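Sample pair:
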Amino acid sequence: MRIGRLLVVLAMVLTGLVAWGRGVASASTVPTCSSSDLTVHAGFSGAAAGNGGTPIVIVNHGPSACSLNGFPNVVAHIEASSPRPVIFVDRPRSLIYRAVHPRVVVLAIKGTASFGISYVDGLDQQFGYGARCEMNEVTVRLSQVPTAHTFVVSLLKNGHDGFGPINSCFAGFILGLTPIVKGSLPPEY
């Protein structure tokens, strides 16, 4: 009798796990976003006590919901020849955005997602200001998107203080990235 009840309970648990697994699978059946359905632009930058961050906002203008996930591929564009290469790492580099794990993000029609570029403002001040330090724009490629379109994102009006480009020299030539998250602002501290 006890074995019979145990088997019934075990069957209920397994049925629940299978049903739960189907629920997860159905969320992953949302197609990956197509680059032709997306727009990408800089949001308003934030800064506090030498920490800077710029959200990059992604909007779905397609005919249906779609999904994104992971970290973007970002390349800096400096106004003149930079004294050192600018590197983006897959983790925050300031106290503006929190570290989060990459997850699948479903964008509804007109829905938004974002990732953050973060940096410390004041690491390598020997190069000062000027054309060889000013990061005016970045190119962004969403690694999971099937058509490998590159988006050019201007930072001229959305730099570290909200009014200009990001000074890559002051950031020590290393900027951090958050993974793509739901909403127009990455998780802040």
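The chain is about 15% helix and 35% strand.
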